[in-house]
Amino acid sequence: MAQVTFRIWRGDKDKGEFKDYTTEVSEGVVVLDCIHQIQATQAPDLACRWNCKAGKCGSCSAEINGRPRLMCMTRMDDTRYITPGETVIVEPMHTFPLMKDLVTDVSWNYKVNKMIPPFKPRKPDAEDGTWRMTQEEVDRVQEFRKCIECFLCQDVCHVLRDHDKKEGEMFGGPRFMIRVASLDMHPLDTVDRIGLLKNTLNIGLCNITKCCTEVCPEHIHITDNGIIPMKERVVDRYYDPLLWIWGKIFGTPKDESSKQRQSLPLVASK
Ligand code: SF4
Ligand code: SF4
Ligand code: FES
Question: 74 alpha carbon to ligand 3 midpoint, in Å?
Answer without folding.
Answer: 11
